[in-house]
Specification:
The relative contact order is 0.12. The chain is globular. The strands form four sheets. Strands 3, 4, 6, 7, 8, 9, 13 and 15 form an eight-stranded mixed β-sheet that branches. A three-stranded antiparallel β-sheet has the order 10-11-12, with no helix packed on it. It has a two-stranded antiparallel sheet with strand order 1-2. The chain folds into two domains: about 80 residues, no CATH class; about 140 residues, Umud Fragment, subunit A (Ribbon). It is of the alpha+beta class. The protein contains seven helices and 15 strands. Helix 5 links the parallel strand 3 and strand 4.
């Protein structure tokens, strides 16, 4: 049996990890070695996927999330870490039949509002590449950020990567919020301002980034073509 030795130094202490090659064949050994690397990175990062992804050399932590989901489902929990709820589990949807009622309510509301919106079986078209997205309703107060004079249907790409300066949809408890990601160098925290409140951000509550929109009137058509933000 062959063994792979990995040495690392942390605070002047030398740690050693072993990977033992068995006789399972090339494909199985590659898979097990990848599992070994992912496991080591997650443990070193104490379960924080963003830090673990950096240790593995990934540009985005989503790459690691995809590997865990598709190749090693259950590994994260096996290591003693708790996976956050999926975005769909934490989402509150508006029925498309209630769009008119929702618009009237949001128009008369003083506070800005962001909600999930189910467009049913409508065909959505984009002039640019879009995948892994969700549809939202942004009220008129929120759409002012984009210079649009009314509430609109907004396409939000699901991505929890924290990028300062970008407009983002995030979760504050059970409600959605929207704002520009800021970074406090003194406190070393990311946050956004929403309706006079400061919402702190981590990869656990960042939902995604708005990339396109269309008016509610146009969104009632069978084919909805979105405008890129």
């Amino acid at each position: 049996m062959l063994s792979f030795y990995s040495f690392s130094t942390t605070d002047s202490h030398l740690s050693e990890e072993f990977y033992h090659f068995g006789k399972e064949g090339y494909e199985a050994e590659v898979r097990e070695f990848k599992r070994f690397l992912v496991t080591r990175a997650l443990r070193a990062a104490n379960g924080k996927k963003t830090d673990a992804a950096r240790l593995l050399g990934f540009a985005k932590h989503q790459n690691l999330s995809d590997i865990l989901k598709k190749q090693f489902p259950g590994l994260y929990e096996e290591l003693g870490f708790t996976a956050r709820k999926s975005r769909s589990d934490r989402s509150v949807f508006i029925n498309p039949n209630d769009i008119k009622k929702t618009v009237e309510a949001k128009t008369n509301a003083v506070k800005p509002s962001v909600s999930r919106l189910d467009l049913g079986k409508r065909m959505l078209q984009f002039s640019w590449h879009v995948e892994n997205y969700a549809t939202f309703y942004f009220d008129v107060n929120t759409m002012q950020f984009f210079g649009f004079p009314e509430g609109a249907v907004v396409i939000v790409v699901l991505d929890s990567e924290i990028i300062p300066g970008r407009a983002v949809v995030a979760l504050d408890g059970d409600k959605f919020v929207f704002g520009v990601i800021q970074f406090d160098t003194f406190a070393n925290v990311y946050f956004l301002e929403w309706d006079g409140e400061t919402i702190f951000l981590t990869e656990d509550n960042v939902f995604g980034y708005p990339v396109g929109y269309q008016s509610l009137a146009e969104a009632k058509a069978e084919i909805v073509e979105f405008i890129k933000i």
